[in-house]
Specification:
single chain, 3 helices
Length: 128
């Protein structure tokens, strides 16, 4: 594990130096007749450093072992229910409900065209 103690101590020392400089500037402002900002006139309490553990990552072997364990647990449940060799349903394309073709040609006798008033021209002929 990386040791960050030196870096943390250096940053805390730099922070303490800067807080002292701000306190000196605030006191100079008060002496010169100005007013020091209320938030900055108080020394800030030291900040506690919290360490966060790195995220746990599973290896591929561990993931495979988890999957295998789940599969075995499902099989054990099926055996306990009395149906150990139940086939696994694999989704497939839907089967036809009936055997008639989907596209059916219409007979010419079904397709009759009646002219309407908009398509008839001035002389009683169809407008093209």
């Amino acid at each position: 594990m990386i040791c960050l103690e030196k870096s943390i101590n250096a940053l805390l020392a730099e922070r303490e130096t800067l807080v002292n400089q701000i306190a000196a500037i605030d006191s100079a402002l008060v002496i010169l007749g100005g007013s020091a900002p209320i938030e900055m006139s108080k020394p800030m309490p030291p900040v506690e450093v919290t360490r966060v553990r790195p995220k746990r990552v599973l290896s591929d072997a561990h993931k495979a072992a988890l999957v295998e364990g789940r599969r075995k647990a499902r099989l054990d449940k099926r055996i306990a229910a009395g149906r150990p060799d139940e086939p696994v349903e694999i989704p497939a394309l839907a089967a036809r409900v009936n055997e008639t073709p989907r596209l059916v040609k219409r007979n010419r006798s079904e397709l009759t065209i009646e002219p309407d008033a908009d398509s008839v021209g001035a002389f009683g002929q169809l407008a093209h």
